């Protein structure tokens, strides 16, 4: 019984660390993460300054892009569902263009 309990505990600890390492501790999969930027939609009529882009606008931005090497999208969630809470990837200071 003791050996089974130890095996389950060690296995669970290993699984949790493996998931945390893969999701939280690994570096971003980009050659130069310091050059990543985040783009937003704005809606002055509703006073939204950092709105999540619609899929149609993302497709337009991707097709018309002449500035960035690539454009990618992601969806962030908070406790209220889809949301635009602040997310900081890494690094101090202001973004550089």
Would you kindly provide a written description of the structure presented here, covering whatever features stand out?
The protein is an alpha+beta fold and 97 residues long. It has 2 domains: 29 residues; 60 residues, no CATH class. The protein has 2 helices and 4 strands; from the N terminus they run αββαββ. The chain is elongated. The termini are far apart.
Write down how many β-strands occur, each being a DSSP E stretch of 2 or more residues: 4
Percentage of residues assigned to helices: 25-40%
Order of helices and strands: HEEHEE
**What count of helical segments does DSSP give?**
2
Instruction: Using the alpha-carbon principal axes, give the shape.
Output: elongated
> Unreliable runs, pLDDT <50, ≥5 residues?
none
Largest sheet properties: 2 strands, antiparallel
Q: Could you tell me how far the N terminus lies from the C terminus, measured between alpha carbons in angstroms?
A: 61 Å
How many domains? The number is 2
Q: What strand order characterises the main sheet?
A: 1-2
Q: Strand content of the residues, in percent?
A: 5-15%
Mean pLDDT: 77
Task: From the alpha carbons, calculate the radius of gyration and give it in angstroms.
Answer: 20 Å
Broad structural category:
alpha+beta
């Amino acid at each position: 019984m003791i050996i089974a309990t130890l095996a389950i505990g060690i296995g669970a600890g290993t699984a949790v660390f493996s998931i945390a390492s893969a999701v939280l501790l690994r570096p971003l999969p980009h050659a130069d993460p310091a050059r990543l930027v985040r783009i937003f939609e704005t809606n002055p009529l509703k006073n939204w300054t950092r709105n999540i882009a619609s899929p149609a606008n993302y497709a337009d931005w991707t097709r018309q892009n002449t500035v960035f090497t690539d454009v990618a999208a992601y969806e962030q969630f908070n406790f209220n569902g889809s949301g635009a809470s602040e997310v900081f990837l890494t690094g101090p200071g202001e973004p550089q263009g």
